[in-house]
Each structure stands twice: as structure tokens, then as C-alpha cells.
Amino acid sequence: MELADKAFSLQKKGDEEAKQYFREAYELESQAALLIPINENNEPTRSVLFRSAGALALNAGLYREAEKMVSQGLLGFPPNEIAAELRELFEQIAVNFVGSY
Questions:
Q1: What's the domain range around 95?
Q2: How many structural domains is the chain composed of?
Q3: What is the DSSP string of 28-73?
Q4: Burial of 28 (0-12, 13-18, 19+ CB in 10 A)
Q5: What's 61's domain CATH number?
Q6: Is 96 helix (H, G, I), strand (E, B) or coil?
Q7: How far is C-alpha 42 from the chain's CA centre?
Q8: What is the number of other CB atoms lying within 10 angstroms of the CB of residue 92?
Q9: Whole-angstrom Cα distance, residue 18 to residue 46?
Q10: pLDDT tens digit string along 14-68?
Q11: Are the beta carbons of 58 and 96 closer than 8 angstroms?
């Protein structure tokens, strides 16, 4: 969370260094998310971690990684509200990914 907080703070200032902090935070968050097996008893923790990892990857400009995180979050048993947030994040990723070409 410290890395993400630092990244958001730098992003507000327009500092390009923010992307590096987003990348580092994404790496840690994705590692944590990938440790949790798909199991109904692991929700909503599992899907929330994947949502967070996807958002961090998006902010880091890592669009393919963001897609993968959102896709993983939608697998299994995410609660409806989290699933809707993951789908919304997927749409944001798609808009940014297409715009990056």
C-alpha cells in the first residue's frame, strides 16, 4: 500500500516516476493474488486482490498484465459487486490499451 500511495501522490503531481511505483506495487499485489486458489471460501479477498493488481497495472501502463489480472479476478466466484467493478476496469483497460498504439 505504501508503494501505491506514493505512486498516486506522484501521479497527482504529474511526476513520471509514479509509473515505476505503480509497477512495483503491481508486482507485489499480483504475487499476493496469484497465491490464493480459486475457491468460493477465498472470496471476496481473491477477486479484490486481482482488481487491485489490475488497477495498479493499468496505472503503470502495463495493459496486457492488467487484462490478465482482471480476467483472473473474474474466474471462480467473485461477488456480483466486485465482478461488476472488474468488468468496468476491463473497459478502462481496453480504452487505454487501444489508445496506446
A1: 2-99
A2: 1
A3: HHHHHHHTS-S-GGGTTHHHHHHHHHHHHHHHHT-HHHHHHHHHHH
A4: middle
A5: 1.25.40
A6: helix
A7: 18
A8: 14
A9: 26
A10: 888 999 999 999 999 999 999 999 999 999 999 999 999 999 999 999 999 999 9
A11: yes
C-alpha cell at 66: 492488467
Cα(77)–Cα(86) distance, integer angstroms: 12
Q: Which amino acid is at 60?
A: A
Distance, CA of 58 to CA of 98 (rounded, Å)? 13
Q: What is the pTM of this model?
A: 0.91
Report pLDDT for 15.
87
Side-chain-facing half-sphere of 51: CA atoms under 13 Å: 18
